Model the fold of this input.
Amino acid sequence: MDAPRNAPLESLTEDFSSVLCVVAHPDDIEYGTAAAVAKWTAAGKTVTYFLLTRGEAGIDTMSPAEAGPAREAEERASAAVVGVTEVDFGDHKDGNVEYSLDLRRDIAREIRRRKPEFVITGDYGNRFVQGMLNQADHRAVGLACADAVADAGNRWIFPELVNEGFEPWNVGMLAFAGSMNPTHYVDVGDKVAVAVASLEEHAAYNSALPDEFPKPDQLVPMILEMGAQAAQAEGVTHAVALDVVNRR
Done:
């Protein structure tokens, strides 16, 4: 007997006007989420990015001193493809990001500065979509972001942020990308090509990957097709699957 399928996902209600994507590395957003970003910017929503590192440890053939600036430039170019012009970086060390009060504070500061209605980060479980092992920086940033969403709305957790001029801000909705247990989907059937183009901007990083690793024009459609399979919605061929926490 076949195992029962998971329940269909709910279509994400897109009644928000501003989004902040918080991730560990350049290219984390481009593995699927960028398709939803392209849809939202095309609809006039404001989307900003905050990356905690510059991905300087991500290219074996380039020293961190070279790779960091190269990957930062690639991320900015990648963001521009999907309509994002505001991309900020933290100063945490790639591969060495630790869950800490400093990490929470940095994310809470960015939330208060950008004032998003919706925050998206990566799943912080040990495993993520398809049971693959989640990377250490991803886990630390995802968990810290979940906590920082609450921190951003409480003036007494990091009172120094108020002294810096950042008043508390309450985020309406939080979502995790790459979850093994998504709850909602975003239909991105008409944004596959632009999402592929966004990942292709990471040329230095992509060129250093093993030959057997799927190319962007293979990988992005595959990820979005998996999202559509999870969605189980009629007529949806490509989707971004998200685990959504409604804080409203």
